[in-house]
Amino acid sequence: MSDLDLLTQSLARNVKRWRTERGFTLDALAARAGVSRGMLIQIEQARTNPSLGTVVKIGDALGVSITTLLDYERGPKVRVVPADQAVRMWHTDAGSYNRLLAGTEAPGPLEMWDWRLMPGESSASDPHPAGTVEIVHVTAGELTLTVDGVEHRVPAGSSATFEANAPHVYGNRGPVPMEMVLTVSVPPVR
Are the beta carbons of 146 and 125 closer than 8 angstroms? Predict the structure, then answer.
């Protein structure tokens, strides 16, 4: 089987899978993506090789990457992210930072972060979409977690979960660096 055949079959399987997981009808996805219903039927039946532009439109409408749509790996999918490839999103001169350790779509975006806050520093977050849930596990120091104006103390070794559709702040009011692992689960696009 050629690479093109593998990609065509993978695209067919993955578009149908993500459309079903998102709860979209063919008509709904066609409208969201700006492609015809007939084109989607041809894609899902692996009877066409659409343009890259069409694949991008479909991926955007489903909220998944092109890589996800064209992935033709057949076995259990394992992705190892080496330590030096974790993405640092922000940092301060005092030494606070966060790093995106890994992410996936299951069935919506799921991310795992490594955070460090130096004494006296904090990081505020705007509300996320309704249905977003965060889980924190503090590995050192003490986190002052403020959700919708209410403070919660989370000492080392403890964990907390919360609905993140309200303003929230991660803070360190203690005398030592606070370190935590944070997981964010965003609901799928509907």
Answer: no
Q: How confident is the model at residue 64 (pLDDT cuts 50, 70, 90)?
A: confident
pLDDT in tens, 67-113: 778 776 554 565 666 677 777 778 899 999 988 777 666 667 778 88
pLDDT tens sequence across 111-163? 888 999 999 999 998 888 888 889 999 999 999 999 999 999 999 999 999 99
How far apart CA 134 and CA 164 sit, in angstroms, is 6
- Of 59, 46, 53, the closest CA to residue 10 belongs to 46
Residue 139: closest CA among 169, 172, 186: 172
Angle between the 3-22 and 52-62 helix axes, to the nearest 10 degrees?
A: 30
